[in-house]
Amino acid sequence: MPSGLAGSPLLPFATRFYLHTLAVFRLTSCIGLATLLVGWLILVPLLSPAGHAWFAAQSALFLFASWRFLSGHLPPWHEAHIALLRLNSFGFGVVAHVMRRYLDRAASQDSDGGGLRSPLRLLMLLQLASGASTHLMLALLPLRLGLALPVQLAVVLTCAMHNRLLCASPALSSPGAQHWGHRAFALLDSVCFSLVPQAARLAPEAECAALLTFQQLTISLALPLVVQAAWEAGLYKQHQSQRLTQGLSKECGWQARLYAWIGDVLVTCDALALLAAGWVLVGILWHLAVSLNAAPI
Q1: How many CB atoms lie within 10 A of CB 268?
Q2: CA pair distance 107, 102, nearest whole angstrom
């Protein structure tokens, strides 16, 4: 990606932002399409007609994106296209049922008997079930911060609605998985910022769902949005500076106020204050994840 902001200062920031991130969009589209097609081939035995339909639809969206943006031209509906790619990334629940079948098959093939590999295996399955790595890749599909927030929040909440379904699978509900899941839950509960301790112990399935939701809220939602906010605010500051240099007025509106506020926070807060704020944010998200899945014993 070029160091300088692409496009002329005469263009709106939104247009320059997408021109600046065009190379990332092309690369992410190609990687996303290749990953999707490989996954489709691997998961064929587990797919229902709805699963095949989702793979076909999402592959078509990625294929069309790869072809349409090769010219470097930005169509007027580019933001809607990217938003649809993100929103359809988990098929509005279809992918959760595919993941459940995958976890069921993983449980039937598990032969470690809850041995030493169980903690690492559980972490791998929890990460896979949460969809966090997929969410991070989708965050590379460029979408302005003001649009990325509601779109990514909708994706994460849609996935979180199906966490109980995944946690009920044998792979995540076996005695070994529940044992290590409870230890991970207790560790997070002890290190995350909190003004009020948890009122009651949760059922094992609820603890598992809370761990998945926590990954989705932190890795899938907060992390990419915080990084994007800091980076995008810097681009917007550069855009405004270039406009002033050429004798143009600054852009105004809610977008300008948002980027200005983010820039002020980054300038006025030192590294220690930002780390403390991050710890508090992670603690808030942890207790939100627990509250959303609360089902006391």
Answers
A1: 8
A2: 9
